[in-house]
Design brief:
By secondary structure, the protein is α/β, with parallel strands linked by helices. The chain folds into three domains: about 120 residues, 2-Layer Sandwich (Nucleotidyltransferase, domain 5), CATH 3.30.420; about 190 residues, no CATH class; about 110 residues, Trna Endonuclease, Chain: A, domain 1 (3-Layer(aba) Sandwich), CATH 3.40.1350. The chain contains 17 helices and eleven strands. Strands 3-2-1-4-5 form a five-stranded mixed beta sheet. The protein has a four-stranded mixed beta sheet with strand order 6-9-10-11, with helices on both faces.
Length: about 500
């Protein structure tokens, strides 16, 4: 048996080949990281008589291309945790750092741990491809955002306001209704030059041709906007070229994004951790593969920096460390989810609109006794004494028309980067709907900040007749944070 130890660095690797009992087959030699040189290395190793196993540390990103080339050449390749090499033998590998000594040490490790070596598998290739594709996906997303902003800027000169009338999502082929519409109706004069009936018929045919849902109400809305719009540029060939070229570029980039998204999901679904990651809260077919593309490197960074004592502790408490890693990933995912939500909100890709209707009848598992001004005959009786005091104070106000206790997981919610079910709805005589989240004197839930921030965003984007309050009994966390302050504001709503 032959053990080829490879010490990998940025531009070259150092290779040594040993046999049992210290027999040196090849003294350490350097191999540049070119396709030709790596192919030559593969042939050299394959020509050695007997079974040959190639071992290297999985540090950084450099080892992956080498492992892939040698694996595809038919060699047995094993990428080993650097900590195992570090702790092997006399621990000299990192004390006196020379590439030749490192290559020899890795080869010796391979011989002594021959039966425990894990072959570099197609799974590793899948993970490498997934990570590479994710990097391209992130780049394409940035390009898409810049290109979309450019098209919107041009659009605001030739057909201001039209973007806000379309909210259809991007289709799997990268097309989107507002982009396709802008390409074909690139100026207000493309719409308002004829009658409403004429445009409605053109719009109907356009929707059918492009496989979009047709609505006479939408046609009328577009036509009304075109008639009232004040444009900054004339309907010229130059304007047409600029707008249509920008629309074509955005569609092309969107198509690349959706292709990456689909292929990443196909790759990720082949990995054993796919089902676990996809079960995480808020993870879908887009975010899941992105997380999986980076999880392995994250785990490697954790383990690679551990001391011998820490490694031993981990081996004896794997569930504890797995939970810590899972908690960290979920925390990072929550931060990303909130950041992405705000980006999309600022870009106008997320809009606040009515999507909930109070049902005619509710059936709480346990009903309260009669409280004045309740919306329903029977409200949910899951209030503590402090929440009951809050409602009593609210219904005592002359301008409060009705109140309602929101049933968790069934009633009204603020749907954003989290699903936030507030405690109460209150309607004033002036027609203002107040959404109330109440925190008792001894409570400050860990997700209070997330709820408050989402509530503020909803308040800012929902219109003048909607308000959000998070109220604490004994302390002020925002402008309307205390109960006394909340009641003071409610009196004038």
């Amino acid at each position: 048996m032959n053990a080829a130890g490879i010490d990998v660095s940025g531009r070259k690797s150092t290779v040594a080949v040993l046999r049992p009992f210290g027999e040196v087959i090849k003294l350490p030699f350097d191999v540049p990281h070119s396709a030709e040189e790596l192919a030559s290395l593969a042939e050299q190793l394959k020509s050695i008589e007997g079974e040959t196993r190639v071992v290297m540390e999985h540090t950084g990103r450099y080892y992956e291309s080498i492992a892939k080339v040698l694996h595809e050449a038919g060699l047995y390749v094993s990428a080993v945790n650097p900590l195992l090499i570090k702790e092997y033998g006399n621990n000299s590998l990192r004390k006196v750092k020379t590439d030749k000594a490192d290559a020899m040490k890795i080869a010796k490790y391979a011989l002594d741990n021959w039966s425990e070596l894990r072959d570099y598998t197609p799974m590793d290739t899948i993970r490498y491809d997934l990570k590479t594709m994710n990097r391209q996906f992130q780049l394409a997303i940035k390009q898409k955002t810049a290109t979309a902003n450019n098209l919107i800027a041009l659009q605001e000169q030739s057909f201001p306001g039209i973007r806000k009338l379309f909210d259809s999502p991007v289709r799997s082929d990268g097309t989107q209704k507002w982009v396709d519409f802008t390409r074909d109706f690139w100026h207000t004069d493309c719409v308002r030059s004829g009658s409403l009936n004429a445009f409605t018929e053109r719009y109907r045919k356009w929707c059918k041709r492009n496989r979009y849902q047709f609505s006479t109400e939408k046609a009328a809305e577009v036509y009304a906007l075109a008639k009232s719009a004040v444009v900054l540029v004339q309907k010229t060939s130059v304007t047409k070229t600029l707008v249509q070229a920008a629309a074509d570029r955005l569609t092309a980039i969107s198509r690349s994004v959706e292709t990456y998204r689909s292929e990443m999901n196909k790759l990720a679904s082949q990995l054993p951790e796919y089902s676990v990651v996809m079960e995480m809260y808020g993870v879908g077919e887009s975010l899941g593969p992105q997380l999986m593309a980076e999880i392995r490197d994250y785990v490697h960074r954790i383990v690679g920096g551990m001391t011998e004592d820490e490694l031993t502790a981990m081996e004896t408490a794997i569930p504890t460390y797995a939970r810590k890693i899972k908690d960290k990933i979920e925390a990072l995912e929550a931060v990303y989810r909130e950041k992405k939500f705000k980006q999309l909100l600022d870009a106008g890709k997320i809009v606040c609109r009515e999507s909930y209707t109070l049902p005619p009848v509710i059936t709480p598992s346990k009903a309260t006794d009669v409280i004045p001004k309740s919306l329903y005959e029977a409200e949910a009786d899951d209030m503590n004494s402090e929440e009951r005091d809050c409602i009593d104070a609210g219904v005592a106000l002359d301008n409060v028309k009705w109140w309602h206790r929101i049933i968790e997981n069934k009633g009204f919610l603020l749907n954003g980067y989290i699903n936030h079910y507030p405690d109460f709805l209150m309607m004033t005589n002036a027609g203002r709907l107040v959404v109330l989240e109440y925190k008792g004197g001894d409570r400050d839930n860990s997700n209070s900040r997330e709820k408050l921030e989402l509530g503020r965003q909803w308040d800012a984007h929902s219109g003048e007749n909607y308000r959000y309050f998070m109220v604490f009994k004994n302390r002020e966390v925002n402008a309307n944070g205390t109960m006394d302050r909340f009641i003071e504001v409610m009196r004038v709503l």
